[in-house]
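Person: At home tonight, work slowly through the protein below, taking as long as you need, and write a paragraph about the fold.
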Amino acid sequence: MMKKLNIFELDRMQLADYREADKVPFIVVLDNVRSLHNVGSVFRTSDAYRVQSIFLCGVTATPPSAEIHKTALGAEDSVAWQYFKDTRETVQLLHDEGYTVLSVEQVQGSTMLQDLKLDKEKKYAVILGNEVKGVQQEVVDMSDGCIELPQYGTKHSLNVSVTAGIVIWEFARQLLIE
């Protein structure tokens, strides 16, 4: 029989230890994400995989917020974050700091996520867009490339927090685990 582990048996890091732990050289950028629940979910997933930081841009809400906390469950306190008014300025800053910037968007010539090969010597930033409009075209134009998730059903997109979870896992798998 398989016994579910309780919270104490999971032996998770304490907040102070988490802040000192090595992070994946990876920044998640949220470009005008409207739903505070989506923002909170991205914080929680980013905590799980030790993402370096989250950049919240445009209309994307910032902590402290009860709605963000509802899904983040405190990850808004463990994951470093910054707010930027303009996503384009954020992309330029990331380029200036040596990051490879990838947007998650369906474009001509996108790289399917399963074909993405990351270099552990590089730093990466991934941009996730608005729930309706996606990543702004001007931001896509500034990106070093685009990642696309394969989909086989009738819908043309996934929820931004679901997409974030899949993409963050793949980056952590390649940069932290492998």
Notes: The chain has a mean pLDDT of 96. The chain has one domain: 22-177.
